[in-house]
Amino acid sequence: MTTIDDLFGLRGRVAVVTGATGRLGRVMAAALAGAGATTWLIGRDEGRLKALAGELGPNCRPARCDVTSDEDVAALGARLTAEGGRVDVLVHNAHVGRGGSLRSARPADYMEAANLALGAFQRLLDGTRELLVAAAADSSPTVITVASMYGLVSPKPQLYDTPEAGNPPYYGAVKAGLVQLTRYAAVELGPAGVRVNCITPGPFPGSDGDPALLARLGAQTPLGRVGDPAEIATSVLYLASPRSSYVTGANLVVDGGWTAW
User: Which Gene3D superfamilies does the entry mention (predicted)?
Assistant: First the structure.
């Protein structure tokens, strides 16, 4: 009988999750570690990373790294090379949340957002490419980027209490770019056996989410609710597993149907 472990088990695999202490990052990391992968938790706050590793268990390794720093990412790549020599799953989830509008946005905001979403993705690929290719010898290594529904559609201003409370335009612009960069990377890395896919989340609650706002957001979906973080975890686990070995260049939209109408 085929078991869940046969389908989605990741024992002997190595996963790297950036933005690991974020609201969705920690759920993704928990899913990968729970499936048996040695899971590297990446972020800028070492204390929070260690706390999360203690919470998630012995499969997790905290590693402080600022993905906007060439030096930090190079050091991470060297550490991964020294301590295993392979990466089977790379999740690019680093994100800084803030509100804003066209009226308040400045050119520097676009550059900062692009560095975190797009520049960091390039750095991470540069730092782990050989490790991903090495894993292709006996696995189906995958890179997973995390975009946003606001990379596909614009926010509805009337859902937010003030213009500055909504997602800023530079956030959606770089997330749209990340979806396209995912396709580029899938085409370039495919011949080496490395898959690259994107997950586009819809409305999901944060730890300090405003219940009234969440209710308004949920009402905009055909399912009539916001997402449960576990519904992102299973999507990541599917794309991370060898069972999705013929899936690359795809954008898996997990938004309760937000972008369907």
Answer: NAD(P)-binding Rossmann-like Domain
Per-residue pLDDT of the chain (261 residues; tens, 9 = 90+): 767 787 789 999 999 999 999 989 999 999 999 999 999 999 999 999 999 999 999 999 999 999 999 999 999 999 999 999 999 999 999 877 778 888 899 999 999 999 999 999 999 999 999 999 999 999 999 999 999 999 999 999 999 988 888 889 999 999 999 999 999 999 999 999 999 999 999 999 875 568 999 999 999 999 999 999 889 999 999 999 989 999 999 999 999 999 998
Is residue 160 annotated as a catalytic residue, yes or no? no
Q: Which helix (H) or strand (E) holds 60?
A: strand 60-64
The active-site residue out of 150, 160, 171, 246 is 171
Number of residues that make up the chain: 261
Q: How far apart are CA 18 and CA 20, in angstroms?
A: 5
The pTM of the full predicted model, rounded to 2 decimals, is: 0.95
